[in-house]
Design goal:
The protein is of the alpha/beta class. The strands form seven sheets. The chain has a five-stranded mixed beta sheet with strand order 2-1-5-3-4, with helices on both faces. Bound molecules: flavin-adenine dinucleotide, iron/sulfur cluster (SF4) (3 copies) and FE2/S2 (inorganic) cluster (FES). Residues 616-622, 646, 669-671, 673-674 line the site of one iron/sulfur cluster. One iron/sulfur cluster (SF4) binds next to helix 3 and helix 4.
Length: 696
């Protein structure tokens, strides 16, 4: 036996034992990638680097035999840097997408391919379970989200992108109609309490996840009912209240308590909540209407007031000719609501051009289809009463000048271009701001947008107080509010359990942007072209006279057909790839060493596995396993320089090289170069990056 010291602890091992094995005997974890227990080491990845006293630089512990009196260090800043660099080099030419481009773009990080798979299998509860892990209110969001994800769908390069929003709405609606809608499981009670101020999408999402984590959650809101802008602003023709009620009902069923009619600053102060609860989440949105800043503006109807009355089924008398000032979602919603109130003309006046409009352009298109006129480069100058029921709005023409702080070109007035517009009502819809006075009064730091909060943890300057959604970002999008609510829940859970508040662990990810034509040809070679599903709509007469929902939802067979169009992009081992796991743990920057990456290619010759050479890290695990299993041809490292990879000899397909050992190789492969076709995880090691990287 020989005795060596590792991290100041002595261990005696038999001759021939490696430093890695000796360390493991002491329970010391050294990361590995190319090491395969029982096989000869190749020491190609270098992530098992350690320092050995008397030796220069670093040594690969998997290949280094232990020696008498050896003194080994396995953890230091320098070792961490060396391992990080080894990982960054491995990722620098990696041809793969760890996460599908659609999921990477969804602010909530929804596993889109995952829930599509559920729909395609007709497993609505399964799809709902996948959705619920990352996205609260999927039915509401499926209706109103601008679908940032769809703009990145891979199929856009081939035929038409997937209808992702419509599909998660389909799952939520179907689930809601089921005898027993999906109810996520709850962790054991923690005995801790959380207060949430604001029952809009951000507050509801935080409540949804916090209650699942085992905490007692109480939501305080100034209004009578929960939902925030989704209930009090967005008209029912886009989001029927029953759909919203059903999703809020699930949150109530999980045990969240709602205390409505309670206004922060009037009915309670932050100090009260901090005394009565262990943590607080502030999600008061951006609810303060911005001023029109023109003479006579008091004659205009504020957009939120108008929309709230419409939502309550008690619309104001707006007369026949309505003018809406603004270019955001609020303006378009006001215009589309006004169309439904027996008006003769509805005009939207916007001071820039269509290109700069902050609303969803599809919404502007729908408004125009319903008869709304949108006029650009016009700004209000003066509003006057002109007779009993008439108003006169003086407008001025604008032209675009230099870009302003927002990057959009600044509208500049054209002198002498004023003209008057007669109308019965002017609705001012030029945006909302955060009411930050109440926050400042209670000791919170604020920014130009709203309450100041760390973008990763959502923590504010006050201990145990978190903030998110529009209250932090200023008027924004519901999906970002929902994402912020979930992120805040993760941080609050850490805080409530006395852990370091670090927020959700950031997972390393590479992507294949841009792909060239040859790569696209490989990706789409076995796929038939097919058109995107069309969302059915009610007829125009009903659209113009009722607040019935315009888009009626996909029938089951259409939804299933659409889900089957999904290519399941992203990596099949994204949840269990050891390279990604270590890159995340070592916070490796996948783009640290920019330059050409390898080409994306695929070998689909084997019925059980897929081989993607561009993801191979040349660990030779498969080479050694194939040799051990006595494969006739086996695989070997071939090629030179940049093109070096693993392949079967004589240009044979992988199916011939790995006739007997394909499954074992796919399970041992530390990246997704070799992956099983059947599962979205390799199944071999049981590692889950979602639970946090913990690979031995
Ligand atoms: C007309 C309109 C149309 C929109 N259309 C879209 C769209 O199509 N797609 C999209 O993604 N987004 C859209 N949005 C934006 C979206 O609604 C918001 O981004 C989202 O609602 C923000 O969620 P939140 O929870 O942060 O805030 P909010 O939804 O504003 O909720 C805040 C909650 O806090 C409560 N509250 C406020 N102050 C207090 C206080 N002092 N004490 C107690 N409670 C308080 C409010 O009553 C409210 O319930 C639209 C917004 C508007 C106004
Ligand atoms: S929430 Fe929006 S961005 Fe995310 S998947 Fe749904 S439609 Fe796409
Ligand atoms: S094909 Fe499916 S997985 Fe790929 S980008 Fe489109 S929706 Fe996402
Ligand atoms: S394909 Fe083989 S050599 Fe390449 S990473 Fe996977 S196991 Fe290692
Ligand atoms: S060099 Fe040791 S595990 Fe790769």
């Amino acid at each position: 036996m020989l005795t060596l010291t590792i991290d100041n602890r002595q261990v005696s091992v038999a001759p021939g034992t490696t430093v890695l094995e000796a360390a493991r005997r002491l329970g010391i974890r050294i990361p590995t990638l190319c090491h395969v227990p029982g096989l000869e080491p190749v020491s190609s990845c270098f992530v098992c680097a350690v320092q050995i006293e008397g030796r220069r630089g670093f040594s690969p512990s998997c290949a280094m035999p232990a020696a008498e009196g050896m003194v080994v260090t396995t953890a230091s800043t320098d070792i961490r840097k060396a391992r990080k660099m080894a990982l960054e080099l491995l990722l620098s030419d990696h041809a793969g997408d760890c996460v599908s481009p659609c999921s990477a773009t969804c602010p909530a990080g929804l596993d889109i391919a995952g829930f599509m798979e559920g729909i395609a299998r007709r497993d609505v509860p399964g799809a709902m379970e996948v959705i619920s892990r990352r996205l609260a209110l999927p039915g509401a969001l499926g209706r109103i989200c601008p679908r940032l994800c769809e703009q990145q769908c891979r199929r856009l390069d081939y035929d038409q992108g997937l209808a992702i929003g419509a599909l998660h709405r389909y799952v939520a609606d179907e689930d809601g109609r089921a005898k027993q809608p999906y109810l996520p499981p709850k962790a054991a009670e923690s005995g801790k309490t959380a207060a949430i101020v604001g029952a809009g999408p951000a507050g509801l999402a935080a409540a949804f996840y916090l209650v699942q984590m085992g905490h007692r959650v109480t939501v305080f809101d100034a209004k009578e009912r929960a939902g925030g802008m989704l209930r009090y602003a967005i008209p029912a023709h886009r989001l029927p209240r029953e759909a919203l009620d059903a999703e809020i009902g699930v949150i109530e069923q999980l045990g969240v308590e709602f205390r409505m009619g309670q206004r922060w600053g009037r009915d309670f102060r932050l100090a009260d909540l901090r005394k009565s609860h262990d943590a607080v989440f502030l999600a008061i949105g951006a609810q303060q209407a911005q001023e029109l800043r023109c003479e006579g503006e008091e004659l205009a109807l504020p957009a939120l007031e108008f929309l709230e009355m419409v939502a309550a089924g008690n619309p104001p008398a707006v007369g026949e000719d309505v003018v809406v000032i603004g270019g955001g979602n609020t303006a378009i919603d006001c215009a589309r609501a006004a169309v439904r109130l027996k008006t003769r003309s509805v005009r939207v006046l916007y001071r820039r051009t269509r290109q700069e409009m902050p609303c969803l352009l599809s919404e502007a298109d729908e408004a125009q289809v319903e008869g709304v006129e949108i006029e650009y480069l016009l700004a209000p100058v003066q509003l006057e009463r002109n007779g009993n029921r008439q108003l006169s709005l003086t407008c001025q023409r604008m032209e675009l000048g230099e870009p302003d702080a927002s990057g959009r070109r600044r509208p500049v007035a054209v002198p002498g271009s004023e003209f008057a517009v007669r109308c019965s009502t002017v609705i001012a819809a030029i945006g909302q701001a955060v009411e930050h006075e109440v926050a400042e009064r209670d000791g919170l730091r604020v920014t130009g947008w709203g309450i100041a909060a760390d973008p990763r943890t959502m923590a504010t300057n006050l201990e145990g107080v978190f903030a998110g959604g529009d209250a932090v970002l200023g008027a924004d999008l519901a999906v970002r509010a929902v994402a912020a609510g979930r992120m805040a829940a993760v941080s609050m859970d850490q805080y409530l359990r006395g852990q370091a508040v670090t927020g959700e662990p950031a997972l390393a990810a590479v992507n294949m942007k841009p792909m060239d034509d040859a790569e696209r040809a490989v990706m789409f070679r076995a796929i038939e072209q097919s058109a995107r599903v069309r969302m059915p709509e009610i007829d125009m007469a009903r659209r113009r006279t009722t607040f019935d929902e315009v888009e009626t939802g996909l029938p089951a067979e259409e939804a299933e057909r659409e889900a089957r169009r999904c290519l399941s992009c992203g990596c099949s081992k994204s949840d269990c790839c050891h390279v990604r796991g270590l890159a995340s743990e070592y916070q490796a920057d996948a783009f640290r060493y920019p330059g050409a990456r390898r080409r994306f290619t695929q070998d689909l010759s084997h019925p059980e596995i897929v081989y993607e050479p561009g993801k191979c890290i040349l660990c030779e695990a498969c080479v050694r396993i194939a040799a051990e299993e006595g494969e006739e041809f086996g695989v070997a490292i071939v090629g030179r320089g940049f093109d070096v990879t693993v392949a079967a000899p004589f240009g044979k397909p992988i199916a011939e090289g790995l006739r007997k050992s394909a499954r074992r190789c796919a399970e041992a492969c530390p990246s997704a170069a070799l992956a099983l076709r059947s599962a979205r995880t390799c199944g071999g090691c049981g590692m889950s990056l979602i639970a946090g990287p913990s690979i031995g």
